[in-house]
Fold this sequence. Notes:
The protein is of the alpha/beta class. Helices cover 36% and strands 20% of the residues. It folds into 3 domains: 6-223, Spore Coat Polysaccharide Biosynthesis Protein SpsA, Chain A, CATH 3.90.550; 234-447, Spore Coat Polysaccharide Biosynthesis Protein SpsA, Chain A, CATH 3.90.550; 451-557, no CATH class.
Amino acid sequence: MSGPTIVSLLPARNAATDLPLHLESVAKFADFVIALDDGSTDDTRAILEAHPLVRTVLTNPRREGYAGWDDAANRSRLLAAAIESGAGWAMWLDADELLADDDAATLRAFLLDVADPTCAYQFRVFRMIDDLGHYDQDHLSVTRCFAPRPGQVLPPERLHLVPVPTAIPRDRRRQTTIRIQHRAGMTEARRRARYEKYREVDPDLEWQWSYAHLRDGPSGVRPWLPRSRHLPTLDHEPVVDGTPLGPDEPALSVVVIARDDESRIERAVGAVVAQVVDEPFEVIVVTSGTDRTAAIVRERFPTVQVIELDHPALPGEARNAGLRVARGRYITFPGSHIELAPGSLAARLAAHRRGWAMVTETMANGTRTWSGWASYFLDNASVLPGRPSFVQTSAPIRCSYVREALREVGGFPEDMRTAEDTVVNEELFRRGYGAFREHDALAYHHSPCRTPGRLLAHHFRRGRGRGRLLAERRPVPGQRPSLRPVARYLVGSVPGRIRHTHQYVRAWGGDLRRYYYPALPLIAAAAIAAWVGGFTELVLRRGWWPSRTRRAPSFTR
């Protein structure tokens, strides 16, 4: 065996039914287990002592209930035993937790070859529902893995401590994309038992203000999918995929979505078809509405696949219709208002081939009225032609994708008039996929905002879309929207957008500044219109108004 040894640290009480599957999972990444039996009244201790993977079993005196549970003391004993064992890495994993085989293999390879022993590593927790093939919550991230060293101590909190040595500072914690399957909420009986356990051990709510959320039933159950080969081990890093294309697999699918766009569809599709790319790509046009858009594409571009929806479709539905038939490893969705510059697709594909799951472009303005310039600067200031390529540190505003990643999130929401891609981009970025802005992927944005009236109406709609995102965002399922982002939007969105736009233009605007300053009054008006749209959605339509600040409960570990 080469490389450092890996120990799994296991505090357990009355876990006899969970241990066989847990230990089978642990064997996929750990060299041995150090366990502590916290006064069990079932066969937990006997199972641990009999299992060949378990090297040491520490014990506490038998007790009938959970009262007296001191998680800090238990974990401190396990840490001391891990240090004494000389293990190179320690991983906390509770008896009701598992790593799927692909995540376990990723963790072991990472710890043996890549991980930094001065860091601690975080993992996403998925609440499994009914079986190991379904989950409904994945909002919790926990810090569980570190290199044990002499002299380390854990925080003193009796319950709900972060089990990382205090010598490892917070800025040395690194988020991974490795997933923990948490089984304690799989059934109603288990959820009720878990709630009763915490009410017994913390009857006065000394360590957490509420445990009611532990009884919440399933909501939004999703299938568990295998780990994507495009997903980095550490958040937002590139992953180069060297797998050769299949015989019928294009490198890239270009899905142009259009609704009643007969006046501009030829320009958009013509710019795509004229692209020169070293690898094969396919073009799909998804149309809806009542005009001749689909007929024009069929007449002018016979090699392009046309999907004609029989009703006016919102953008998410149109995107998903193209996604279902797309065969490319990567996929991009230029709308009918986007005109790709020569070389744009080649540059975008090259960035994907360097390992980036999401790639955004440089945007130039194609609507050269003052209202068009105002909309352009407000929406595209971060991707001006003068700005070099860079690694995104937040979710991109628009992008192309690894197609497999879109499958993971189930495609785009189909009931939104705007911001449907924002939902997906933020979710993929939250899951750890990397994003890159490619300077040479240039496109021209032909905005509908040719007049002040259309400018204000367009940004009002966009503001409503943003308001909806904020209203539906939950720090914990079933809770009200978090006060901070909503209040920040209502108070600071207008000055914030104008300030950021100004900073980007001043840094990267170059010759475009001569259009920016005359358009400033319209930029401010559009920002206000977007705020009014957000206010309308948040306050007038949904009746949401922050009345008091309350700390949301954690998903208790």
